[in-house]
Fold this protein.
Amino acid sequence: MLARRLSDDPSVRVVLLEAGPARGGPAVADPARWTELIGGPLDWGHAYEPAAPTLHRPIAIPRGRVLGGSSATNAMLWYRGHPADYDAWGEGWDFATLLPYFRRSEDAGRSDPWRGTGGPMRVEAPADPHPVALAVLDAAVEAGLPRIADANGATNLGATVPEFTVRGERRHSAADGYLAPVAGRANLDVRCDTHVVGLEFAGDRCVGVRWRPARGEPGGGVLRAERGVVLALGALETPRLLMLSGIGPAAHLRAHGIAVRADLPVGDRLADHPLVTGITFRAREPLGPVRGTGGGAMLNWCSPGSERPDLHAFVVQGPHATPEVAARHDLTPPVFALSPGLMRARSLGEVRLTGTDPTAPLRIRPNLLGDPQDVEALCAGVEFVQQLGRTGALGAVAAGPAAPDHLLTAREREAFVRLATSTFFHVAGTAAIGPVVDRALRVHGVDGLRVVDASVFPSLPSCNTNAPVIAVAERAADLLRAAG
Ligand SMILES: Cc1cc2nc3c(=O)[nH]c(=O)nc-3n(C[C@H](O)[C@H](O)[C@H](O)COP(=O)(O)OP(=O)(O)OC[C@H]3O[C@@H](n4cnc5c(N)ncnc54)[C@H](O)[C@@H]3O)c2cc1C
């Protein structure tokens, strides 16, 4: 995305290095097949370290490894959350500043004070949502939530048909939106299957990167960057590369024999949204082929005491469960799920190296459910979703609960949350504005090095993270242009 915006200036030469391939194939293009990509060759294959609050269960944290990154492997929901999320980011990153960048990034098919048209990211709402999705929306209204036309508009509190990064029947990734239209541009050199394994310095200035072929072939070298290096490797690989290059917590680097260039809290404050996967209902009728992404209904509401939505659920056309929940319940089709996530979790974690090999596993401790208030809020989310199962609207399509298979008591709810919580795939914050980068996204203590990805989020917005990453990158493009 940034590579496209920077190369809009013909006097700037941009080289984009991507570890994954240029194209992902039919499973990337088909919105209904996104879950197949998890754990496959286009996934970095990271995992969270098992931890007590989630009952020591293994939890994978997928990241896209293909041109377009995770926007080419994600579930495609396009959602900004609440303006106050960004106001908390402070000067230069507050919602009023970011709104023009959200609007500039999108082609939402309409232009109003909130939404943009003609931008690179095509976003569309499903033309024909599944009847189950429509029943979920009616159920939410029956339970007291307002029905809203656009969660990216004036308010996000309520039930709505969400928008997705699709064009017709096909996924529309950041590579489709930003890079494909400028393929062949003379000043933009896109090199795929190229793994960046280190940063090169001259004194305090980052002057290039070290790379090697991503598929293990011999070769590799150093690429010099006259005007600077921008890291956009995502919230797990960016902190890895910084730490391998001597930028990180000094004691941790020294423990791995890495000379310290800048003692910074890289890898700290790792944030993610815990997601209860999911509350599954037995459907009265076969559900037919997956429509669109399998989503089609989104609910945003408040846990007790929250002044703005911190709970967010989406419908899944089929079962949605951790292996541990699936092992204890009958999820034979036809079933559908509603999965509530906590969008302002208090728990924060960390990512650390396990060795100096750039392909070594990372030690990722998200601390999901580490704060008791997060558990309480998710229990409230489960309770609300189970109550939806008792509405007339949902009763019209659901024959009864499948997992959990009965209305849970408070004590059972907590046990279920611990068994069913996984990741919403929204890892961020590991090289945050403030402690690690300045307000222009420059890494403290070194010259010529910026970070432009989800790592820089000072806190996690209460939404899925693709749209915010792209808005941040849009603003970064202006900052870099202004810096010359
Ligand atoms: C399964 C899944 C579902 C999701 N669903 C949604 C959703 O529905 N809606 C939403 O808004 N968000 C969703 N997200 C999250 C969202 O897609 C990401 O937060 C966002 O794309 C992150 O952007 P990023 O630029 O920080 O990193 P990424 O998009 O992960 O990009 C990093 C890029 O850098 C490359 N890279 C990494 N290390 C190196 C290296 N050393 N050398 C060369 N290249 C490297 C990677 O291959 C990748 O292409 C989902 C994510 C996943 C994985």
Notes: DSSP finds 13 helices and 25 strands in the chain. The first helix runs from residue 2 to 7. The mean pLDDT is 97.
